[in-house]
Write a structure and sequence with these properties.
The complex is a heterodimer of chains A (549) and B (310). By secondary structure, chain A is mostly helical. Chain A has 16 helices and two strands. In chain B, 43% of the residues are buried. Classes of the chains: A mainly alpha (549), B alpha+beta (310).
Chain lengths: 549, 310
């Protein structure tokens, strides 16, 4: 490849600009998402300052609503999905023994659409009337009412991101289906790859619905194209539209979206735990089956976000039961992960700490979900800070911990050097404590009647919870800062550790760190879900060493 | 543990103390769910900590294999069936409690009170059966079931009615009419606020329910009715404080809306009516649908109590 590459494309900068290498695209995805994570985190810190005290007036309601909207949108669309797509880009071809993704140029296109979508969203702060301020859910009629162009840019941004995500999903599905190396049957596929396959299918199933809803929203807001003025009322009642129609469409996408983010995080955990427990994953097939079940049922639970809109009790009952059904495969995963630790030989390197932290926090987010699934209970806590706490336990305590686990785990593969373990452990403990200080009290604020999305409050009995939350948020900021220090510090001085520092099981560790552009010179024939473990055994057998069981 | 009050313990981690049967049903369901939630929490976190401690590496080699266990079908079936059973129990309990949460109780001889609750940017408008209008502070009779018919004007946005002590929330949606209810036995003031992001002053969209005795209530509603006929009285002040002041400040000094103190519009019934009924620029049509009476009472109030501007 290098020989035929024009010289201008080989430059340090141009090489990244024109790359179609899945590994470079993966790193671009991750790095860009981390930048957005920092920006959205800063937005959260400002919001927390505003809420630290009752009746505070640090930022007004305009800025607060914009920050809340863009914080949520960024975390979901510019951090959660793309950072996991970044891991998937980097890892899927390596894990299945392929040289690249099925459509490398489409892959590059996905990345650039993601970047442009993100840039549009960030720049919308400078739009006429400021950024969108109707929440990441953009419920009409509120999202139609705002005359500024921020909301239109928000829609444009999400359209770009949807194109990016769907193109990426097609690529993952085709790659995983067609390009697995010899011997890698479906049941020998790494669990992370399984999670990405379902990630892809879910995106294909639900993203078009979001696109449709956003297009209708755009038309409702009024669109002038040349001589034509389009002004519809799909979502406004004065001309026979329905505001609830949007909510149904949005959440038909929105709930699976949660699993689009969570399933790959589960996948990371399923890769990390066995390696640091020195055991095979407990119940491979049960974990695959539960992944498929979660993906399927996630499309049948959307109206649990709409329990307070006055749906008939029969419908609410259906969505309660469907939501509870999802808890079963999720429980299977949790217990299978626990059983993976059972009788293991546990080492607590940073990736493992974050994976265990994920387990302990995600369980809390899962359990608070049971209250929310029971619709009469949800009538009480819906749209309160209890919900804010709930989904931050799943998405920050869950997904972000899994992401850090993955970063520390695959860093040596990506860059040939490890991150600093001591700094990593400090980061873990600071983040773990800061997270709980920030989000545990929000459960109680919600129970005492504090609604979400308010820029200020008069009730001084909520002040203690909010102050704790604010302090926790800044403690978390320290942990993120430590990560940045770690990255800079180890850039040139990190330990070089060879191909397979963790003695792991999957094919990406078979090649060099970092891998060459074509990934593998040879790929071993895959004989189980743990091809490298099989190889190590074979070598030990050949050397006549006893195999310890 | 003798004497350990499980329900009392779990009630500390439950919604606010209920003052109405529906809120009570919700809280009972909450506590029932909590029994399982806390048990599962202790089980999972306990196993996690126990395994971390018991199976840590200690003196073993870094890469020595743990037990080669690939799964255990019976065990996995058990932790599939267990949660199914727990969720079945929870769903069953919820359905048992549901009628007491959802259905308004039979009224006694005093009947029930129906109040129309309209969510508007950024205030709550209450309409009583005799046409009396009140803003933000609702008055209700102790012991009498109150049926709330909740909606929002077609030109407005979605709001959500929520008084935690008096039950769950219900959305006020343009084009949709929802119902909820409460029945408070104890006199007192119960507060809550809009729970669905409705724009800039969402956080100021507070609501309170003042539960009073039947005599007090009757006296109040007759007085308000007379006032509305005479076009003089409290509604003007309530309108200023509940509707205008949230954006323009209690003294008209300006807030997220411009300063209005000293503006001739405040006291000109016709200009004021046009302004509030159709909105202007960023200002929503806060007074769409208001009666001439209400606008006259607002203008009168502002004539007699001109906002000082500071």
């Amino acid at each position: 490849m290098a020989a035929s590459t024009p010289s201008w494309q080989r430059g340090r900068f141009a090489g990244w600009l024109v790359t179609t290498d899945h590994k470079r695209i993966g790193i671009l995805y991750i790095a860009t998402s981390v930048v957005f994570l920092i920006l959205a985190g800063l937005m959260a810190l400002v919001m927390r300052l505003q809420l630290a005290q009752a009746n505070a007036d640090i930022i007004g309601p305009e800025r607060y609503n914009e920050l809340a909207t863009i914080h949520g949108t960024t975390m979901v669309f510019l951090v959660g999905v793309p950072i996991l797509a970044g891991f998937a880009n980097y890892l899927v071809p390596l894990m299945i023994g392929a040289a690249d993704m099925a459509f490398p140029r489409l892959n590059a296109l996905s990345y650039w659409f993601f970047l442009f979508g993100g840039v549009v969203l960030m720049l919308s702060f400078f739009a006429d009337g400021g950024a969108a301020s109707s929440g990441w859910t953009a419920y009409p009629p509120l999202s139609i009412q705002d005359p500024g162009s921020g909301q239109d840019l928000w829609i444009l941004s999400l359209h770009l991101l949807t194109v990016s995500t769907v193109a990426g999903a097609v690529n993952f599905i085709v790659t995983i289906t067609n390009m697995r190396t010899r011997g890698m049957s479906w049941t020998r596929m790494p669990l992370f790859v399984w999670s990405i396959l379902l990630f892809g299918w879910l995106i294909m199933a639900v993203m078009p619905v979001l696109s449709a809803a956003l297009t209708l929203l755009l038309l409702d807001r009024g669109l002038s194209v040349g001589p034509w003025d389009v002004q519809t009322s799909f979502f406004t009642p004065d001309d026979g539209g329905s505001a609830l129609l949007y909510q149904h469409a949005f959440w038909f996408f929105g709930h699976p979206e949660v699993y689009i983010i969570v399933l790959p995080a589960f996948g990371i955990i399923s890769e990390v735990l066995p390696v640091f427990a020195r055991k095979p994953i407990f119940g491979y097939k049960a974990i695959v089956a539960s992944t498929v079940a979660i993906a399927f049922f996630s499309m049948l639970v959307w109206a649990h976000h709409m329990f307070t809109v006055g749906l008939p009790i029969s419908l609410q009952s259906f969505f309660m039961i469907a939501s509870m059904v999802i808890a079963v495969p999720t429980g299977i995963k949790i217990f299978n992960w626990l059983a993976t630790l059972w009788r293991g030989n546990l080492s607590f390197d940073t990736p493992m700490l974050f994976a265990l932290g994920f387990l302990s926090l995600f369980v809390i987010g899962g359990l608070t979900g049971i209250y929310l699934a029971a619709f009469p209970i949800d009538w009480q806590v819906h749209d309160s800070y209890f919900v804010v706490a709930h989904f931050h336990y799943t998405l920050l305590g869950g997904v972000v911990f899994a992401i850090f686990s993955g970063l520390f785990y695959w860093w040596p593969k990506m860059f040939g050097r490890t991150l600093d373990e001591r700094l990593g452990k400090w980061q873990f403990w600071i983040l773990f404590v800061g997270f709980n200080v920030a989000f545990m009290p929000q459960h109680f604020a919600g129970l005492e009647g504090m609604p979400r999305r308010i820029y200020t409050y008069a009730d001084e009995s909520w002040e203690g919870y909010n102050l704790a939350s604010t302090i926790g948020s800044w403690v978390m900021a320290v942990a993120f800062l430590l990560f940045a220090v770690n990255v800079l510090k180890t850039r040139s001085s990190g330990k070089r550790v060879g191909n397979d520092p963790w003695q792991a099981d999957t094919l990406e560790w078979y090649t060099t760190s970092p891998p060459p552009p074509h990934n593998f010179d040879t790929v071993p024939y895959v004989t189980s879900a743990r091809p490298l473990n099989d190889l190590r055994r074979k070598l030990r057998d050949e050397r006549g060493e006893r195999v310890t069981v | 543990m003798p004497g350990f009050d499980l329900v009392g313990f779990l009630a500390q981690f439950a919604p606010v103390p209920p003052e109405s049967p529906n809120a009570e049903g919700i809280r009972d369901s909450w506590i029932f769910v909590s029994i399982f939630v806390f048990a599962i929490f202790l089980l999972v976190e306990g196993l996690l900590v126990a395994f971390i401690w018991r199976y840590r590496r200690q003196k073993r080699a870094r890469f020595e294999d743990g037990a080669e266990i690939h799964g255990a079908t019976k065990l996995e079936l058990a932790w599939t069936a267990g949660p199914v059973l727990v969720l079945f129990l929870i769903a069953a309990f919820v359905f048992i409690e549901l009628p007491g949460i959802k259905n308004i109780p039979e009224a006694d001889a005093r009947g029930e009170l129906e109040i129309r609750v309209t969510g508007r940017q950024f205030y709550w408008e209450y309409t009583y059966p005799n046409g009396v209008i009140a803003i933000d502070n609702m008055r209700a009779v102790a012991g009498v079931p109150v049926r709330l018919v909740v909606t929002a004007p077609d030109t407005d946005v979605i709001h959500s009615w929520w008084i935690p002590a008096l039950g769950g929330k219900i959305d006020a949606i343009p084009g949709v009419t929802n119902e909820t209810w409460f029945q408070a036995e104890n006199e007192g003031v119960y507060s809550g606020q809009c729970a669905e992001l409705c724009g800039l002053e969402h956080a100021q969209m507070l609501a309170s329910v003042e539960v009073i005795s039947e005599e007090e209530f009757l006296a109040w509603i007759v007085r308000r009715s007379d006032e509305q006929v005479a076009r003089r009285g409290d509604l003007g002040r309530e309108t200023w404080e509940g509707v205008c002041a949230k954006c323009h400040g209690l003294n008209g000094e300006g807030g997220i809306g411009p300063r209005v103190a000293g503006s001739p519009t405040l006291t000109d019934v016709e200009d004021l009516g046009n302004l509030v009924r159709s909105g202007r620029g960023a200002m929503p049509a806060v007074g769409a649908g208001w009666s001439d009476t209400q606008i006259a009472m607002l203008a009168d109030y502002l004539t007699e109590n001109p906002p000082s501007g500071s």
